[in-house]
Every structure is written in structure tokens, then in C-alpha cells.
């Protein structure tokens, strides 16, 4: 009994003296979290989309660079933050080296499209075709330091015979075609609406056969835009180039709505067909 009274007396003294004993913290009921931080699980990071799973589209522009329309095309691509590829002619590079330099400076691709685009010269023999590509590469190299091995045949690869293909392959050249045609080389000229419809319908067709769209348009060769006769071939050419420039923003917007990302042609570009 004496021991019991002594312990009670000691406890009273400690409580009255405030000797710094801290009362225990209030405990949460069983099964209830101690804090909101413990209650909320850490957010899981957003899964990264592998680059190879993105839908790619290749915009390509043939026959430049020219001193007027190529710049307008480049302005639109820059405004939209889109990259494209330009199939260039050596004869036009020699006239507009500064435009080719701008194409490179702004991150676009270059395709060798022959020096002259003259069918009679290009297709006269396998050796003539090779010479046309080599001459174009010489013009490219004078501006950017080196040539390119990716080429697009004037008029398309169907014009190249087996012997020519083999010779070009031996020299390291890689052919790139297209599978979506804007049809902007119609001799009668085409409207903006026609070009847009041609590209949209072409992309849908290519999608249906599980191919990657490679879109063919033309910034066009160098021409004299002064004193053009209405109804002439040059007038139709100008109308089509202006239609390409007018349609390009809507083409880009359409492709973005279809979840495409814009790629530059290189040795890894899939075959058109």
C-alpha cells in the first residue's frame, strides 16, 4: 500500500510542476491516413509515345528553287513549324543559291532531281542519267558543301529502266517517289480547292493500304513573271503555283487533324509503294 501511495504522490507532483513532459500526439483512428500526403498516391508519369509509333507524312516540293514561290512556301512552313523536302534542279540552284541555303538553314531536306529536268538529256542513256545527278550534286555541294544521294527521277521512277537503276545503285543513289499527287502540273492550271481535294483524297487512299503518305507538290522552276500573256502556258503555271501556296496552310492543318507528324526525306523513308 505504501508503494502505491508513493507513486500517486509522484505523479501529482509531476503534473503540477509542468516539467516539460509532452503529451502524446493524437493518433488517427485505425485504418485512417495520418495526412493527405499519405492519402493521395503519387501521380503516374504520362507514358511517352515512341517516335516510331507516330504517323508520318512527307511534304515534297519539286523543280525549284526559284526566286519567288519557293520563298512563299518556306514562309508558310516556318509559320507552322513544319519541315518538308525540296527536290531541286541544278540549273535552278545555280540561279538561286541563296534560296537553297535558306532551305538548309531552316532544317528542310534536299532531294537531287537532276540538273536540267530535260527528258531528252536525262533519259538518253544510263550514263546520261548518272551525269545529270552528278551535275546537280556539284551545284548542291557548291552551296552546302556536299551532295545528296537521295534522288527523284524527273517524271517518276517508272521512266527508269533496269540498267539505269543498277548503275545508280552502284553509285550509292537511292530513289524516292511519291504516292499522293496534288496534280498541280495540269497544263490548264489548277485551283486551290482542287489541290486540297487531291491531297486529302490521296492521303485517305494511301492510309487505306497502310502506306506512309509522300505528297508531291511543286514550288516550280525559275520563270519570268513579267509580261505574262493571259491563257498562255506560263499563265497556267503561275496560277498553279499560286494555288499551291494558297492551299498549303489548309493541307498542313488537315494533316495535323489526322494526327500526322511532318518528316524530312532521308535514307530511312519508306518506299511509296
Short overview:
The protein has 273 residues and is α/β, with parallel strands linked by helices. It has helices at 2-17, 36-39, 69-80, 90-95, 97-105, 119-122, 126-144, 162-170, 192-208, 233-257; strands at 55-62, 85-88, 109-112, 150-151, 174-175, 180-181, 214-218, 260-262. Strand 6 (180-181), helix 9 (192-208) and strand 7 (214-218) form a beta-alpha-beta unit.
Walkthrough of the structure:
This protein starts with a helix and ends in an 11-residue tail after the last strand. It is globular. It has 273 residues and is α/β, with parallel strands linked by helices. Strands 1, 2, 3, 6, 7 and 8 form a six-stranded parallel β-sheet that branches. A two-stranded parallel sheet has the order 4-5. The relative contact order is 0.15. It has a single domain (52-262), classed as Glycoside hydrolase/deacetylase (TIM Barrel). The protein has helices at 2-17, 36-39, 69-80, 90-95, 97-105, 119-122, 126-144, 162-170, 192-208, 233-257, and strands at residues 55-62, 85-88, 109-112, 150-151, 174-175, 180-181, 214-218, 260-262. Helix 9 links the parallel strand 6 (180-181) and strand 7.
The string of secondary-structure elements, in order, is HHEHEHHEHHEHEEHEHE
Can you tell me the overall shape? globular
Task: Please identify which CATH superfamily we are dealing with.
Answer: Glycoside hydrolase/deacetylase
- Kindly identify the CATH topology: TIM Barrel
- Mean pLDDT, to the nearest integer, reads 86
Helix proportion of residues, in percent?
40-55%
Top CATH class = Alpha Beta
Q: What does the radius of gyration come to?
A: 34 Å
Alpha carbon gap, first and last residue: 103 Å
Number of strands: 8
- Most strands sheet: 6 strands, parallel
